[in-house]
Amino acid sequence: MANLKSSKKRIRSNKKKEARNRMLKSSLRNTLKSVEEAIQAGDIETAEANFNKAVSALDSAYTKGIMKKNTASRKKSQLARMINEAKSAA
Fold it and tell me: Cα 18 to the chain's mean position, in Å?
């Protein structure tokens, strides 16, 4: 257990940040999953609409420090490739 006042405050603030990051990561994963599910279902219009939301979510995750820049870029590229492949197959 921390003794110093500043250490106690650091513990409290870390808990708040951890909860915020966990919520944002979970929301991001759900958004990405919705795109993948729409692609597998063959609903390309819904996949494209969800893709736009996913790109926005990835960009905000990067700016908030939840995710690294290249990781966000890689995930956007993967989703775009999946959508393009689904379009060409249809």
Answer: 16
DSSP string over 32-89: HHHHHHHHHHT-HHHHHHHHHHHHHHHHHHHHTTSS-HHHHHHHHHHHHHHHHHHHHH
Asked if 61 and 24 count as a contact pair (C-beta separation under 8 A), the reply is yes
Residue 7 inside a domain? The answer is no
Is position 10 within any domain? Answer: no
pLDDT tens sequence for the chain (90 residues): 889 999 999 999 999 999 999 999 999 999 999 999 999 999 999 999 999 999 999 999 999 999 999 999 999 999 999 999 999 987
Is position 44 within any domain? yes
Query: Is residue 81 in a domain?
Result: yes
Q: Which residues contact 52 (CB under 8 A, 6 or more apart)?
A: none
Domain of residue 39 covers 19-89
